[in-house]
Write a structure and sequence with these properties.
Elements: E1 4-14, E2 20-27, H1 31-39, H2 41-45, H3 50-58, E3 59-62, H4 70-74, H5 78-92, E4 98-102, E5 109-113
Antiparallel strand pairs: 1-2, 2-3, 4-5
Helix pairs in contact: 1-3
Length: 120
């Protein structure tokens, strides 16, 4: 199972010297990442900061950068932030489980999503 994904930012993070850093890695999020982020005082003050805190935890490296912090994520261009948010959603998306069923009339097999919530 793949748990770390490489990325290349569309614009790049510009550090204080004007150097651009575009390549990095993001890992799958854990329940702990989400819990930590919801308890962060900055998130409690401003819920929209949640994305910044979570991304600062799951981005494991960026070429030429010593540490990934919420302050660094804040300084990303909006196109790069949107790119990373989309990547986070895609790699952490959980496919619903399915069951292979066979039609009793025609014998054709098909996938049926399993619903464990008890809802419709």
């Amino acid at each position: 199972m793949q748990t770390v994904y490489e990325f290349t930012l569309p614009k790049g993070y510009m550090d204080s010297t004007g150097e651009l850093h575009r390549r990095g890695k993001m890992r799958l999020a854990t329940a702990g990442d989400e819990i930590y982020a919801t308890r962060d005082p900055r998130v409690l003050q401003n819920p929209s900061y949640l994305t910044i805190v979570i991304l600062s935890r799951v981005i494991t490296e960026m070429e030429g950068v010593d540490a990934i912090t919420a302050t660094l994520v804040e300084k990303l261009f909006t196109a790069d932030l949107a790119y990373l948010q989309d990547m986070y959603q895609r790699i952490n998306d959980i496919e619903p489980p399915t069951l292979t069923a066979i039609c009793p009339d025609c014998g054709k097999s098909f996938e049926v999503p399993l619903n464990f919530t008890g809802e419709g």
